């Protein structure tokens, strides 16, 4: 069986996107009898989701982990929930900037991740990798893809999926005083662990990882 | 017509909760022909919502704005979405600490705020009050009340509602190095403005206030 | 006897500088038998210090508190030490941008504040105003004035002085997402308290207010 | 000729100190004809400096770079200035907690680093490693050692020295939500570069790296 790991094109003035660099590094590797396939998504509303759907059609994965850059976050962010709205602070790579537009006019306000985010959190922390559960994937193309992926999972029995945000690479953080970063090796190790946990976990762990606000 | 403004009991080791101090200051004031009624909610899962429902029964408001303390945030946070999950990092005031429990097993994953948060954002910023749209109200009692309030609004035609997070007061921030605060006068002025905007706004403004992550 | 409180002109794209607005509010007020005189300094290397020296000549104060805006800080910052270097990240209001130039080629590397910063910290916190001791006043015009002031104090027996940084006003923070602010009323109250403490304190308190880094 | 790189014992509840782990990794390596010697300092006021002086006596280095952990900083911090004060927020590893005590009663208020911190900043950023000039090394044992080292350099012609703060390791940041980290490989690479730049640089670069506050 295939596992699809997607990353994005660079956006917002960056020359690289760590999500694609990490996905690319995992392409072709094997985990617990599964093959990882890397997919590259344009950072564009609409077209990112079309590309994702085509990748799912072509590779028929049992698991999709979409990965995105969260510039400024200091640890691996396991996203809990995708919301049904596009609200772009900056234009996407095609110059479009939707404001308060639903991603799916017939969809629910949100869908929860299909990944065992608490078990992943536990495994990452045990491995010495800083991680957190996040309650917002933003309102840009990352959340757009996350919401679309969860819609796709609902229509394809046997498909599980979710979204993981990752920090800037050190080389990117050079230009962003005050912002954290994470080495690509650690990001790749984190994503590998997350795939393993997803494959091995039925019922997610019940460990507190909430926030007051 | 009545407008209900709720605040919470202190929690997490604090001796005051600015949300209740602000609501109390607004109690009995009149805005555009409406009377503000302040309600105090216990910071307890379950009982907070029962108290909210009883207040709505008693006062039959056309508008409910629930307010909560967001310790560490630096501006008025207009919450966009409530999610259907309780995940308590710390126990509530009754000692309960639910983990990954749905608030309403029959509810959707989330509900959007019924407030014109973009028009409110615009009005607050014009008035010189720092404000933001927030995409997560957390997973503690604030989000719990927000989700329950939006459920209530769906069952009571004519009732609109939403949630606003506010910073620590200066006196609280004394004990929290590195955390921002806002003067109570400014918080009260902000909430007054928000009520006025809610009363005067039909269709919300379309202004960008999203985040990439 | 006179007490001199100085503030700066706006800089860095701001239309106001809270340090001058606060100083202006204190002008002419009387504290413990002393009269407060407000002085406005240009945000310019060199000329700011010339203006300060002229104000000291004219008003012959026993105490000088120079105040400056610290955009992004979340509390009253009692500066501990001025260092003998100008290193401007941005040009000053006259377009000058010195890099690694000594303020006084014959001066020591640094001078400590002449204010009882620990007693001030204690008084501010008791009054519910967030405050901290800061170990760096930066390397721009604030530190430049602070260093020049301490040089002046060494040459004028009976003159005490020091520097206090204050946060953005709320109206400024509107344009700075993620940055804290403080109400002007609280800033004025804080500076008044600091003057009182300076007048009443001989030996400073010994309370820990350091940092590991 | 020898180059001395020092790191500290763990403190503040940590089980490792990245400064020692990095120094240890560099022990015995050769850079531009020099041999690196790693020295481990206790995180104790007084005894840390005695240990440093003994190491300098024994190895007679031409260059000393003292390294310390700056928990929460997000990049390599090239320290500009050491101040003549101990002000401990927490007790050191021997239980001592000096408050506002001079490190050297006969010393000046501060000494500037003897390292070419701007050339180092430039080299690190060119190599893709996030770095900054810092204007405060705190008031704990790191600053204590830095100040003592600069005093030592003044009495030993031919000895240059300075201080570099480094972030938490990823494994430490697991337990510190909201705090950044840096991989040990990147820290070691950064320190190696800093040594090379120090050996090759006579006059430091004039590039702006200051702060307004």
Automatic annotation (TrEMBL), chains A, B, C, D:
For this protein, the parts annotated as crossing the membrane are none
Active-site positions, per UniProt? 79, 142, 165
Could you give one GO CC term from the UniProt record? cytosol
A GO BP annotation: proteolysis
The record's catalysed reaction(s) read:
Release of an N-terminal pyroglutamyl group from a polypeptide, the second amino acid generally not being Pro
* Pfam families from the UniProt entry: Peptidase_C15
Q: Which GO terms describe its molecular function?
A: pyroglutamyl-peptidase activity
InterPro entries per UniProt: Peptidase_C15, Peptidase_C15-like, Peptidase_C15-like_sf, PGP-I_bact-type, PGPEP1_Cys_AS, PGPEP1_Glu_AS
Q: Where in the cell is it found?
A: Cytoplasm
List its EC numbers: 3.4.19.3
Keywords (alphabetical) are: Cytoplasm, Hydrolase, Protease, Thiol protease
Q: Mind telling me which Gene3D superfamilies this protein's record contains?
A: Peptidase C15, pyroglutamyl peptidase I-like (3.40.630.20)
Asked whether the keyword Signal is assigned, the reply is no
What does this protein do, in the record's words? Removes 5-oxoproline from various penultimate amino acid residues except L-proline.
Instruction: Supply the NCBIfam families for this chain.
Output: PRK13197.1 (NF009676), pyro_pdase (TIGR00504)
Q: Which family does it belong to?
A: Belongs to the peptidase C15 family.
**Assembly with partners or alone:** Homotetramer.
Protein name, entry field: Pyrrolidone-carboxylate peptidase
- Organism in which the protein naturally occurs: Arenimonas maotaiensis
